[in-house]
Amino acid sequence: MPVATEQAAPAAGTAFRTRRRKRKTGGYRNLTGYAFISPFLIGFFGLTIIPIAMTLYLSFTDYNMLRPPEWIGLENYERMFTKDEKFWHALRVTFFYTFTAVPFRLIVALAIAMLVAKIIRGAGFYRTVFYLPSIIGGSVAVAVMWRQLFGLDGAINTILRWIGLPGVSWLGDPKYAIWTLILLYGWQFGSSMLIFLAGLKNIPHEYYEAASVDGAGKVQRFFRITIPLLTPVILFNVVIQLINGFLAFTPAYVIFGDGRPLGATLVYVLYLFQNAFTFFDMGYASGMAWVLLVIVGVLTALIFKSSEYWVHYETKGGR
Amino acid sequence: MNRRRTFTVLFAVLLALATVLSACGGGKSSDGGGSGSPAASPPAGSGSPAGSGSGGGGGSSEAPKPVTLKVLWWGGQTRHDNTLKIIELYQQQNPHVTIEAEFTGFDGYWEKLSAMVAGNNTPDVLQMNFGEYLTQYAKNDVLADLNPFVQSGIIDTGKLDAGIMESGVVDGQLLGIPLGMNALTVIYDPELIQKAGAKEPALGWTWDDFKEIARTVHKNLGIYGSPTLEANNILEYYARQNGRKFFNDEGTGVGFDDRIFIDYFNMQAELIKEGVMPTLDVMQQHSALEDQLIVHGKAPFDVRWSNQVVALSKAANRPLKLTVLPGPNTEMGLFLKPSMFFSVAKSSKNAEEAAKFINFFVNTLEVEQIQKGERGVPINSEIREAVSQALDEVQKNMFEYIDLAAANSSPIDTNYPPGSAEVLSLLGDDIEDRILFDEMSPEEGAKKFREQAAEILARKR
Description:
- Chain A is mostly helical.
- Helix content of chain A is about 75%, strand content about 0%.
- Chain A has a two-stranded antiparallel ribbon with strand order 1-2.
- Chain B is built from 20 helices and 11 strands.
- In chain B, a hairpin with a 2-residue loop joins strand 4 (about 170) and strand 5.
- The radius of gyration of chain B is 25 Å and the shape is globular.
- Chains A and B meet through helix 1, helix 2, helix 11, helix 13 and helix 14 of A and helix 1, helix 4, helix 12 and helix 19 of B.
C-alpha cells in the first residue's frame, strides 16, 4: 500500500530519531515518564503480555489446572488439526458467522448512519437511540430477550402467523439457529454507525454539489463519492468488526448454551471455553487461543494488504 | 491533511492490534491462575456478632484458639441466603470460628474453584459434585480423607444413610460427606392420564406400560405422550437395569454394549415418528425447567431428578405425582445420588475445624429447618423424620419418593473416569441430538459413541 507506507515510514523515522536523542540527554526525565505510565505498563505486562506468553507455554502442555502442567510438545496442535472434528466444525461455524454477520452489521450501520446524517433537528436523540442496542448488546439480558423473541410462541412467530405464514422453530432448528445470532450481531450496529457518521460528516459538501451540477443522480453520488471517500472508515470498521466476529461468545453461550442445536451455534470461542472449563483441558484451550490469534492476525494482515486496491485517500485524488 | 490520514491509518492498525491482543488476553486471563470469575463473591458480611467474636476471653472456659474457615459453594439465591443463615448460627454457637463465605452459581463455580486450587488458595470447606468432578479432584489429590474424623467421632455418621455415604468414597478414602439425596423419578400429571383413560403408573410398571400410556394420552388428548428422555441421565439407568454400568470398571470406555444403546434410542425414535414424542426442535424450545412440556400441560410425563420436582410443581401450579422409572428391574437401575458433598481441602490447616463444621451441617436439625430440603432430602434419618412433619404437599411427595426409591434401588456406580465430563458432553450435546434429529441411526450412534468415548478416556487418563 504505497500511500500509507510511503508516508508512514518517514514520519515514524523522525519520531524515532528524536526520541533517541532525548533518551541520551535526559535519562531522568524518561524515568519520570515511565513512572507516570507505570499503571498502564503494569497492567499491560501483568494482565496482557505475561498471561499471553503463559498461554503459549501452556499450549504445549497437558494442563487441567489442578496438577502442574506437563510438557507434551505439539500433541495439542496435532490433535486439533488431525483428529478433532469438532475443532474444524467450530471453525466452519465461526467463519460462516463472521463473514455473514459482519457485512450485515456494516451495511445496516452505514444505512442508518446515512439516515441519521440527514437529520438536523434532534440528531443527538436519534444517535443515542440507535446506539442503545450496542450498549446493552453484549449483556445476558439481551440474549435472554432474544430467546423470548424467537421462541416457538415468541413475538416473531406470532407476527408470522398474523400474516399467514407458518411459525418457524428459530432456536431449535439447526438451519435457522445461527441466523438468530447473526441478526443479533447486526442489531448492535451502534459503534460502527457512529464511526460511519463521523466519516460521512467529513466528506466536503462541495463534491456532492459539483456532482449534482454535472448531472449525477443519487445512486451515482453514493457510489462515486460517498463510498470511495468512506473507504478508510470502512477499512477501520471491517477490521474491528471482523475481530469482534471471531471473538463472539456471550450470545451463543447464553442463548444456546452448549452449541445446540446439533452444534449449529458452536462458535470457536465457545468450544475453547468448553475445553478449558468443562473438559478441564486448559492446555488444549490455550492452543486453540493461539490458533485463533494467528487466524485473526493473518486475516487482518490480508485486509490491510488488500486495502491498497480499494481504500481511497482523498489526498491522492481518490484513485 | 496528508499526515492526518496517515495517522488515522496508523492509529487504526494499532487499535486493531490492541483489540486482538487484549481480547485474547481477556479470554484467557483466568488460566494464568488469576483474575477471578465473573460471579460476585462477597464475603459473608455477617462477621461475628460484636460480643462473642473478638477476644474469646468472654464466657467460655476453654477458649479454643480462634480460627478462620473459608467455605465455598454453588447455588441459587435461596441456597445462598440459607447457607449464610446456617453459618451465622454456627458462628454463634462456636464463637472462636470465623467463616468466610464465598458462593457463585453453578456456572462459573468450577472455573473459580480450579483457579483457587491452581493459586494454592483452596477453600477449607468446599461443595463438591458427584461423578466426574469428584473423580477429577480425587485424582489430583485436592481433597482430604475424612475417615480419620469419622473414626475419632468428630463426624458422627451414626444416623447417616450408609448407602449414600458410599458415594463419597474414592479408592477407600472418604472424600466428601453427602448433604442430601436425590433420585431419578418419573413425574406425572395424574389428571391428564385419567382424562385420557390410561392407567396411572406405579411401582412395577415397565417401559412397555410407559409407551402404552404415552400413546393413549397422545391419541385421546391430542397432546404429546412424553418429552424425549435425556440420555445423560436415563441411559445410565437403562444400562443399569440391564445389568451394566455406564462406564466400564477399567475406566477405558463405556460399560454397555451397542445393543443397549440402540434399544434405548429406538424406543424414542419410534415414538417420535408416531408423534407421541416431540421432535427435538420442539424440545429445545422447552429447555428451561419452568418451561417443560408437563408444566404447560402438553405432556403427562417428565423424567428428572427428584429435587427438581419442587420447582417444577411450582411452575405447573397443580399437583404432580412421582413414581419410579419403568422396569423391568427398576431396583437394579434406580439409585440414590448425593445431591452434592461438602469436602475438605487436603491443604487446609484447619481440617479438624472444617470437619466439625460439616458434622454440624449434616447432624443439626436447625440446619435442615432452615434449608427445607433445598440441598436434597437429608441423609440423617432422624432429621428426615423430624422435618417431614412440617413440609408442604410437594416437599412431602419428594420425601416419600426418596423413601420409595431407597427401598427399590441399588448403590450408585462410583467408577466415573476423569474424562467423563467430555464423554457426557459428547453424548448429550452431540450424538443424542443427531439421533433424535434423525441425522444418524442409533446403530451408527452407538458405534460412534463407543469409539469416541474410548478415545477421550484414553487421552484423559
